[in-house]
Amino acid sequence: MNIVYVITGLSLGGAETITVCLANEMRRRGHHVAILYLTGENWFKDRIDRDIIVQSLGLSKNPFSLLKAQLKAKQFLKVFSPQVVHGNMVHANIFVRLLRLHCHIPLLISTEHNKNIEGRLRMKIYQYTDFLSDINTNVSREATTYFIQEKAFGRNKSRTVYNGIDLVRFGRNEDKRLKIRIQYSVSNNEFLFLNVARLTPAKDHVNLLLAFKETCSICPDIKLLIVGDGELKKELEEKVKELKLINNVIFAGAHIHIEDYYSAADCFVLSSAWEGFGLVLAEAMAANLPVLTTDAGGCAEVVDDYEYVVPTHDPFLLADKMKKIVIMSPEEREQLGNTNKDKAKRFDINSIVKEWEDLYLGYLQ
């Protein structure tokens, strides 16, 4: 098959990571693959298979930019002649639906990666352009059900397909653990919480910092490593100063080789206000880590244990769970991590890619 993945951008994030991973795996299975991205920089240059065509459409806020990007994409599709065009994220999904008005596309799939897409207008646009899509998917059952209930997705052509991860890549590695801890001056006997997320309102890092502050009351020497970058960085750094956590909280910035950081941690914690799937939870589970999360989007589906899921916007309940993990014996944490590793097998990229491949072929046949 000739497959084109279209995505809003290729910055560091869950939707971008899974799209690149899916493209790579499809190429390894012998398909001809291309990735078109609407805007921004490509952070995945070293991660994308060299046989995959990658092209920026150069979309900007200029009103003529959309027309130019549409014509550029149309010309590309004319030459590449795909059987499948698979959109990812709201802007790219609307873009490829509009593209279908003047391009031949045998199979058009729209994949949303979140329940909250920040605005009723976007849901309405999904609804009014739904007739242009053959198959709609979201990354959790809760999100798919919500989109159907809101009439953003047509019921009869919508389904849930979970995100997938490379279980081998995210396996625990003691050498990487030591390397990262040395890099950030964290001793091997210091308890390290890890959070991997963009510094945006959706991830609610203030909730995490308040919970961490409370957790420090029983163990003042614990550390929190936050991996990610975003618009709220300065605000969050000020919050750390306000909470007197400068010696406990480390902002590491964004990193492409995120697997190293999971190996360094003792527990992963996600404090999001809203999520789609919570890919980082599956990655942390594959790394044998205990995980804590808020009940945002599909996070509870990933963790599959409500003992370690708390309501959103409740730092005190989150702190209670964080304290529980800290005071556990190493043996208890290891057992919990091993259980999570087994659960992570549900998201093995090989199984997820097979599901997508069957979906493509099943429709085209």
Automatic annotation (TrEMBL):
Domain of life, per lineage: Bacteria
Keyword Glycosyltransferase: yes
EC number: 2.4.-.-
Molecular function GO labels: glycosyltransferase activity
Keywords, ordered alphabetically: Glycosyltransferase, Transferase
One Pfam family in the UniProt entry: Glycos_transf_1
InterPro entries noted in UniProt: Glyco_trans_1 (IPR001296), Glyco_trans_4-like_N (IPR028098)
Domain Glycosyl transferase family, chain residue ranges per copy: 179-341
EC top class named in words: transferase
Glycosyltransferase subfamily 4-like N-terminal domain ranges (all copies): 13-168
SUPFAM superfamilies referenced in this protein's UniProt entry, alphabetically: UDP-Glycosyltransferase/glycogen phosphorylase (SSF53756)
The protein's name: Glycosyltransferase
Biological source species: Bacteroides fragilis
